[in-house]
């Protein structure tokens, strides 16, 4: 099973719309939405949830009020201002202490210093994840709760489930919608990927973020290709992005012009391939052919196994 990861470095480049288009073209595959902070692939895929799970991202402190002696040590030691002092309802009684779950980072320092052993660390629900059926095939997706962390851990859970699903259904491809940025979720998405498609747009901020994500891909030595979306809105920056990609060993796989058909298709909950037979749809077909060749030329860890096959494309 090979994983094709679609990454952008920056949100709003049209990455998910393009991934949806590729999902329409790819045959036997499993989809994964690793953009767990702002999952949106489901908007196009219209999933029917088959199974749901709770994601336990870490632990949170909890004070046993029966054991607490109101000494305030936990308040002093917590560096995240997660211990709050609450005035007691009982007159002349010391204020009690409570944990603000949103601020608690689960470091456990308060449990170490509490003289009464009144604080316990409890597993904390940080989000949900699902396996759904869609018209493109199975989709593994999840969503962190507001303010919750450990998105990299949730990405790892999703990718593992997608792999299990692909193996049991005998799919040879996992199509991954990656998160923006170069942080923990992007790293968790990239490790072990077969090939990375970088999608960007010609703006200065997108170019800046593209350079960072290209460095990340190079760091992990994963083969990658570039598609500049909306290239015609600033051909000068498009050229600079492609030049930078070439300098970093990233293949130029295609360019897509600004096309309002993407938006029209989205409004109808469709991919551009299901909506249009225009120039952009044709260019995406060409892009998909090149990606198939690239995927054939790498092993499951992204290493080139037969570069001669892809020369001349
Ligand atoms: S350190 Fe322990 S005993 Fe002291 S206030 Fe906190 S929970 Fe209560
Ligand atoms: S676990 Fe860490 S962050 Fe949470 S309340 Fe205790 S000291 Fe603060």
Question: How would you briefly describe this protein structure?
Answer:
The chain is of the alpha/beta class and 313 residues long. The protein has 11 helices and 11 strands.
Keywords for this structure?
313 residues, alpha/beta, two-stranded antiparallel sheet, 11 helices, 11 strands
The dominant shape is elongated
What is the oligomer described by this structure?
single chain
Overall pLDDT? 90
Radius of gyration, rounded? 23 Å
Work out the helix count: 11
Distance between the termini: 24 Å
Largest beta-sheet characterization: 9 strands, mixed
Give the SSE string: EHEHEHEEHEEHEHEHEHEHHH
> Level of helix content?
25-40%
Low-confidence stretches: 305-313
Structural class: alpha/beta
Order of adjacent strands in the largest pleated sheet: 3-6-7-2-8-1-9-10-11
Beta-strand fraction estimate: 25-35%
Query: How many strands appear in the DSSP assignment?
Result: 11
Attached small molecules: iron/sulfur cluster
